[in-house]
């Protein structure tokens, strides 16, 4: 029996937060990749064409932020969903791409999983090619 498997890339420089988010996603049945910086995330995106969704923090080490990553994905790989997580969601993050979703920090694991699920369902409903059935 084939089941739909989605791959989520978690981009977070705080290791404990990244591990907790990755564990929650894995427990919910997602395949998870991790990156501690935007440059690592770009590498993961280049190596893994099965990534369906990226969950990224805004404030990241180096010259690039999570918003920069969201903009790059929106322009270069619009079939990949993006959730930007920050304590500054709202008026302060007006420069995230319109296709990205802002998830306020802190949030519960249940809220994060619900947001991931809803975003993936929404993208699947519009017929995105990246959501074909996978074994």
Automatic annotation (TrEMBL):
PROSITE patterns: RESPONSE_REGULATORY (PS50110). Keywords: Phosphoprotein, Transcription, Transcription regulation. The keyword tRNA-binding does not apply. Pfam families: Response_reg (PF00072). SMART domains: REC. The keyword Mitochondrion does not apply. One of its GO terms (biological process) is phosphorelay signal transduction system. Residues 7-120 form the Response regulatory domain. The modification 4-aspartylphosphate is found at residue 57. It comes from the Bacteria. This is Response regulator.
